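Dock magnesium ion; give full complex structure.
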Amino acid sequence: MTPTLPPSEPSSPAITPAPAPAGRAAAPSGDYLVEMRNIRVSFGGVHAVDNVTVNVRAGEVIGLVGGNGAGKSTLIRTLSGARPADAGQIFVDGKPVTISNPRDAKALGIETIYQQLALADNIDAAGNVFLGRELRTRIGSLDDAAMESATRKVMGRLNPRFKNFKSPVKSLSGGQRQSVAIARAIHFNARVLIMDEPTAALGPAETAQVRDLVAQLKEEGLGIFLISHDIHDVFDLADRISVMLQGKLVGTVDKTKVTKDEVLGMIIMGKKPDEVTEKEIAELHG
Ligand SMILES: Nc1ncnc2c1ncn2[C@@H]1O[C@H](COP(=O)(O)OP(=O)(O)OP(=O)(O)O)[C@@H](O)[C@H]1O
Ligand SMILES: [Mg+2]
């Protein structure tokens, strides 16, 4: 169950998404903040992501689930710009966009928190929030006071209990480190947050803290893609759940209309709730 994402976003080959069929700039459906439509990513002959469509509204959490190698990380990496899609289209606010690299994604307000948080261990929270985007004074030196003040402000919103502004982040707990990573992501006007296994390495108390953070961001109107192996996390936090199996989308379901067993049936057997039998559900527990 270990995702093998690199800690930093590798520079990606400039792959242009296949053009839409001539003369048909398909109109995006619904009022989605982001829609990824018919996304395909291949490695050699293997379709890691095969014609997958998922979307998120403002103030909505989409749980993206599936077994190891289902294609979840590869799918969201096309949205974060880490590895552009070979085919398919991405719409933001209903308009087609091109995301060729992480910079393009960030310019659209799409921020990603990878499982390996990619924090700089030896510097403090503010240093991490502004890493690579440092604030400077008029004479060009680092404006530490402004960065700390901005970090206190964003943290006050996110996690008021956070007090360790002067410590290098390596001395912080897992939950606090997650707070710093989230602060870094949302400080720059994120509208869409991608979280790949945010609680995988955390204990119960810290998992609860991250859940609070996700609920808070949802409240603020962000659209969130939450990848998780933890079906309980997903059921607590997600509004809709998109299930992948072997590169394909099994389906997207409204959390209030399914049981955990039905979602497990989708994950394991690739069957939608109306296709699965009671016997098969029973076998999941056998
Ligand atoms: N850089 C790569 N080169 C070749 N194959 C890759 C690469 N990245 C992913 N794959 C393959 O693509 C498929 C989907 O992998 P991906 O990491 O997206 O799955 P996942 O759903 O995130 O799995 P996990 O839950 O284990 O993190 C797998 O078969 C994987 O081996
Ligand atoms: Mg993964």
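Observed: Residues 3, 43, 48, 66, 68-74 surround adenosine-5'-triphosphate (ligand 1) (CB under 6 Å).
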